[in-house]
Every structure is written in C-alpha cells, then in structure tokens.
Amino acid sequence: MNTETAPLGMIAGSRSLPLEFARQARAAGVKRLVAVAAENETDPALAPLVDEIVWVKVGQLSKMISAFADRGVKQCVMVGQLAPKNLFNLRPDFRAMTVLFRLKERNAHTIFGAVAEELKKDGIELVEATPWLKPLMPQAGFQLGPKLSGDQRSDVEFGFRIAKEVSRLEIGQTVVIKEGTVLAVEGFEGTDECLARGGGLAGKAGGAVAVKVAKNQHDMRFDVPCLGARTLETCVRCGISVLAVEAGKALLLEREACETLAVKHRISVVTVS
Fold this sequence. Notes:
single chain, about 270 residues, alpha/beta
C-alpha cells in the first residue's frame, strides 16, 4: 500500500466508488491524493475529498499521464465506471490512438491493460485499489434481507457456475436465473441493463436470481465488481429477488441504503463462492 507521505494517484470514473475510495484511503493514512477525473463522468463531489483534481476528456491519455508525472505520483489506482459506450465514442489523443492501433481486441481489459503499460513507461505503477477497499468487500456468509429458500440457493449455485464460465469467455460477469433457466447474460450493455432484461423475462411474478462474479485471474487493478443502492433499485424495479456476488471479490457501496432497500422490498443480497 501507498505510504503516508507518498502521493497516490486516482483515475476516477463515474458513480460513488471514487468518493468511497478517497474516504477509505484517507482513513488508511494516505495524506496526499491526486485525482484525474473524466469530464461528464466523474462526480464533482470528489473534488473536496482530494488534494488536487485534474479534469480530462475520455481519451486524453497524455494529459492524464502528465497530470500524475508532474506531481510526483509513482502509484495510482483506477476506480469507478467508464460508460461502455465511451470505449467507442472516445476521441483519443495521439498517444491513445497509438495504443488503440496496437490492440487486436478492444474491450475494457485490453484497453485498460494497455493504459497501465503506458503509465509504466513514465514511471507510474497502476496498482489494485482493493487494499484500501477491503472494509467494503463482503466475505463468505454475508447476507442482507430474507434468508434464501432451497430453490433460490440452487439457482444461486447454478448461476455461479454459469457466470464463471461466461466471464471466462470475456462476455460478461453477471447472469440472471429463474428455476434453473438462464434468462439473461451480461454483455456490453453492463450489469443494470442485464438485470432489467432478465427481470423482465421472469414474468409478472418476478422471483429471478442474479449472480455477479469476478473472472478467474481477474485483474483487480481496473475492474472490481460493484453493487450499490442503484443496483438494488434496479432489482426492485425489475423483480429480482436475489442478488448474489462472489465472496471477497466484490464491493458493496452505500451499505445502509442497500440494507434498507433489501429489508423493505424483501430482496436477498448474499455472497457465493
């Protein structure tokens, strides 16, 4: 982990995770935080939680790297989401265009892996954010909301096997199941859209089970599975009764709000391994 005196960089995406990371890093003793934030993506509320914030457009790789190098940052983390559409709508600078040109496959892992290599050329190491985020990662036996029925537990176990295989194929990390039938598999659209599609196919009675996992040998530097209040609100809206995440491999954000939603709407949030 970063020491108290060394500056820590943060490549900040959207939603609440960059804010949560800043708070957890401060609590762990990080004294200086430098954030590079994406215009129209990153929550401006991050600004007062860090020492410096530099705003860039998605695709401005040179500006991002210079922001860290000029401030003596030797380690940085990547936290928060980048909207999937932006992987194709970005307007890359010359350095980013060079990186993209070299890639035979373009997905989040290949693109961000190439970004990590570019950072390394300038003496900046992209490291996992998980050491600072451990308090937010539910372990085995975690549960919010009602206890699972036997049928729900069977669907969770089945969904875990399917999600692991789907993630191995670089398709997605979430599946929606009902009574042993796969209703939806996450693709490029992201978790919320997968939940909505799967929940809609479960019928008026609802009762679908969603399972979200990390890939085997998952690179946690730039993709930590997350769920938060917005995820639970999607489950409420779409009739998802159970949301299971892989133990020790996912972040639970806004826990109090999630617990309130789980109890009020009788949604079970559990870990699986």
